[in-house]
Design brief:
The chain is of the alpha+beta class. The protein has a single domain (2-219), classed as outer membrane lipoprotein receptor (LolB), chain A, CATH 2.50.20.10. The protein is built from four helices and 13 strands. It has a 13-stranded antiparallel beta sheet with strand order 6-5-4-3-2-1-13-12-11-10-9-8-7. The longest helix has 34 residues, at 2-35. It is globular, with a radius of gyration of 20 Å. The N and C termini lie far apart (65 Å).
């Protein structure tokens, strides 16, 4: 009888814990929506274009990143350097890369890296739509929202003070190894009522690859 009672109490505890986690995840995202400017302003971040200056940390050559975003399924990135230009397009999990006049279909880790690049741009309204696929934990300074989708994953580190995303760690598999891509988000400012980071600091593994600074931005419609 005692064994049955203990098992019953354990099930109740697990159920309450999962329910509390779901509630806390929802509560965190609602706070995030408020911190980012409210739903009416935040929905503008579904469709936008940006121009970033790239300060390259692995060479002496800087460049420009022209970014077109239509969340949750489209990202076009045009990387322009003095000696080369590369265009990456991801739409509905299908990716292509263009180098000069040559275009290739992205597959395997190359495609997964593009998926991670898109996932890191998810704002709180997109995360709210995906709440059932998100697990929640925390550190002393951050709430951690972990999302796995389409063979890749991302962890969003949300400040407990500002409720803004301060960093995202994207992960993908390369054979038996896991590759991590870290982006730090800094210098948040309101843009037409929505909070936007004006600085991105990028890492591949432990290597600081670039510091990017926002130069131009405009909201767009869904037509690409």
């Amino acid at each position: 009888m005692k064994i049955i009672l203990k098992a019953f109490l354990a099930l109740i505890f697990i159920s309450l814990t999962l329910h509390a986690q779901a509630l806390s995840g929802t509560a965190v995202i609602e706070k995030m929506i408020e911190a980012y400017g409210g739903e009416k302003n935040l929905v503008q971040l579904n469709n936008y274009e940006q121009v970033w200056h790239i300060e390259t940390k692995t060479s002496d050559t800087n460049g420009t990143d022209k970014r077109t975003v239509h969340l949750p399924a489209f990202l076009k990135t045009e990387l322009i350097y003095p000696h080369k230009t590369e265009i990456r397009i991801l739409e509905n999990n299908i990716g292509t890369k263009q180098f000069g006049t040559a275009t290739i279909q992205a597959q395997g880790p190359m495609l997964d890296a593009m998926k991670v690049q898109l996932m890191r741009l998810f704002h709180p309204l997109v995360l709210k739509e995906k709440i059932k696929a998100i697990t929640v934990s925390d550190t002393p300074e951050h709430f951690l929202l972990a999302l796995t989708a389409n063979s890749v994953s991302a962890e969003y580190y949300v400040s407990k003070n500002s409720y803004l995303i301060e960093k995202v760690i994207g992960r993908l598999q390369i054979g038996a190894q896991t590759m991590e891509f870290l982006t730090l988000y800094k210098d948040y400012k309101p843009f037409n009522g929505a909070m936007v980071p004006y600085t991105e600091v990028k890492y591949a593994g432990s290597v600081n690859t670039a510091v990017m600074r926002l130069q131009e931005m405009k909201f767009t419609d869904l037509i690409k």
